[in-house]
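Repro:
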Amino acid sequence: MEHQSDRKKTLEPFEEELSFRSNRMTAKHMRMSDSGGFQTGEYAISNKEEVMDEIVYHFEAINKNAKGMSLKWEGKVFGGHIEGIAIVSKNGKPKQEFAFTGSIKAK
């Protein structure tokens, strides 16, 4: 009898595009129905600090879908970069966690 380990499955990286407008955050890829169908949600700046003459904004956001799932984002934006974690939950129980990093998209 084989014993399977409890190691988490490694997820393949994928590209995502986050938009912050009018206190609303959209995750382009995660909006698609095959990726969860998460709707635009509100975001808030939870902390603002200055580190080595650079302003760092800490933010939180939540996107929800019609299946009762939520996608909570916690991250920081600094000098044109963004990083943090995103947690997918169902009925308040975490199901998946993603780390993210990126930069401002040129217009």
